[in-house]
């Protein structure tokens, strides 16, 4: 329950209009802080739903694939340049952001992750590594402004943030590929 | 077996949801950026050019109805701009040169509108137009002194202008074509000069054929 309170608190804090407006005013904070924090709020809230509806998760997310697919779809959607813009200009898209990221990405991620095999987990991380490298290349190399509400310099910053995140994931993937933890026990 | 059935159904439902979400979110895979979506929407809406008062590089003051019964080829810029406006105006000049001469001034007028009325007074605009060989008559450069009118026009035509701290602006750029009735009919990519010139010439030819 403590986790639930923490998650709900985080969710409410992020939704406070001045907080939301500030975070959205900087492109890289919007994408690499606000959005992940909304997902984290969902991760923390997840056990609350899992305890309430254990049958539902067992039945419809038995091997974790439906949940992880839903997670990938929602994240993919928020990676479109247009959705970032429209979250700022359209109230309905903003509301959808605050609902979809915690409840359609965070909650299913938590329920699915422990059900996935190691290979599937690494595949998901590999997929996002490639996607982030692609987004990073797009934002750092695009000559045009992709988001009307942000300056080109912010676009470059976001691109580098994507590339750095991808580098972090590559380091992790290399670690799991080459390091055998049992040798250190 | 029954267990996996629900799981499979869930996967199918999620994938369907994903397709619908992406389809709706990109206007049927046609617009991945807000700019494309904006242009598509404007071409559908075809807003009227609002009634504004212009002050041009010769210091003449007139309303937009000055161009009544003429096509108007419009760009939005500011003269202190060091980046995209140069390209925008230079490309506009190239389009101007590509349009058959008999139409220029008769059927179509070129108009560069500044969204920085504070700095872009007639003298500044007059100097600026020289860089692009604009004659100040068939290709005019003007400001809209009234900020309310300016903001309203920018809103109607979906021009997003973000002022920053150092007196510069970030803005989206395009070629706009307004028809004889003052309706916005075409928004064209300002980097595709020949394409824009062809589009405009075709419209003018068809118009003459009627």
Automatic annotation (TrEMBL), chain A:
Keywords: Membrane, Transmembrane, Transmembrane helix
Domain of life the protein comes from: Bacteria
This protein's record includes keyword Membrane: yes
Transmembrane residue ranges: 31-49, 61-80, 122-142, 157-179
Name of protein: Uncharacterized protein
Organism for this UniProt entry: Anaerobacillus isosaccharinicus
Automatic annotation (TrEMBL), chain B:
UniProt keyword annotation of Iron present: no
Superkingdom, natural source: Bacteria
The entry's keywords: Copper, Disulfide bond, Membrane, Metal-binding, Transmembrane, Transmembrane helix
Binding-site positions, Cu cation: 81, 85, 171
Annotated ranges, domain Thioredoxin: 43-209
Bilayer-spanning residue ranges: 7-25
Disulfide linkage: 81-85
One Pfam family in the UniProt entry: SCO1-SenC
Disulfide bond found in the keyword field: yes
InterPro entries: SCO1/SenC, Thioredoxin-like_sf, Thioredoxin_domain
Entry GO MF terms: metal ion binding
CDD domains reported in the protein's UniProt record: SCO (cd02968)
Annotated family: Belongs to the SCO1/2 family.
PANTHER family: ELECTRON TRANSPORT PROTIN SCO1/SENC FAMILY MEMBER (PTHR12151), LINALOOL DEHYDRATASE_ISOMERASE DOMAIN-CONTAINING PROTEIN (PTHR12151:SF25)
Name of the protein this chain belongs to: SCO family protein
Species this chain originates from: Anaerobacillus isosaccharinicus
Lineage of the species this protein comes from: Bacteria, Bacillati, Bacillota, Bacilli, Bacillales
């Amino acid at each position: 329950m403590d986790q639930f309170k923490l998650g709900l608190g985080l969710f409410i804090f992020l939704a406070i209009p001045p907080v939301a407006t500030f975070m959205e005013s900087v492109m890289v904070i919007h994408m690499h802080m606000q959005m992940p924090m909304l997902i984290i709020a969902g991760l923390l809230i997840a056990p609350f739903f899992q305890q309430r509806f254990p049958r539902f998760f067992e039945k419809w997310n038995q091997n974790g694939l439906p949940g992880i697919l839903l997670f990938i779809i929602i994240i993919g959607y928020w990676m479109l340049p247009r959705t970032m813009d429209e979250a700022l200009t359209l109230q309905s898209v903003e509301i959808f952001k605050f609902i979809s990221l915690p409840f359609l990405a965070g909650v299913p991620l938590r329920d699915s992750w422990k059900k996935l095999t190691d290979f599937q987990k690494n595949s998901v991380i590999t997929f996002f590594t490639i996607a982030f490298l692609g987004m990073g290349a797009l934002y750092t190399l695009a000559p045009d402004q992709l988001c009307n509400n942000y300056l080109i310099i912010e676009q470059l910053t976001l691109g580098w943030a994507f590339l750095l995140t991808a580098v972090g994931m590559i380091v992790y993937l290399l670690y799991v590929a080459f390091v055998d933890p049992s040798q250190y026990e | 077996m029954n267990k996996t059935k629900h799981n499979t159904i869930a996967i199918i439902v999620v994938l369907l949801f994903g397709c619908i979400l992406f389809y709706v979110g990109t206007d049927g895979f046609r617009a991945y950026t807000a700019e494309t979506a904006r242009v598509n929407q404007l071409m559908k809406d075809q807003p009227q050019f609002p009634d504004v008062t212009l002050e041009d590089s010769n210091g003449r003051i007139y309303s937009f109805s000055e161009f009544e019964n003429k096509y108007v080829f419009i760009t939005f810029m500011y003269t202190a701009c060091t980046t995209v406006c140069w390209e925008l105006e230079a490309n506009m000049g190239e389009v101007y040169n590509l349009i058959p001469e008999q139409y220029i001034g008769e059927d179509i007028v070129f108009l560069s509108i500044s969204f920085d009325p504070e700095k872009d007074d007639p003298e500044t605009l007059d100097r600026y137009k020289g860089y692009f060989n604009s004659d100040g008559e068939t290709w005019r450069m003007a400001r809209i002194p009234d900020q309310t009118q300016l903001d309203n026009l920018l809103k109607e035509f979906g021009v997003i202008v973000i002022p920053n701290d150092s007196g510069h602006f970030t803005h989206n750029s395009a070629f706009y074509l307004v028809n004889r009735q003052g309706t916005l009919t075409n928004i064209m990519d300002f980097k595709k000069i020949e394409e824009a010139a062809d589009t405009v010439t075709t419209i003018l030819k068809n118009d003459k054929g009627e």
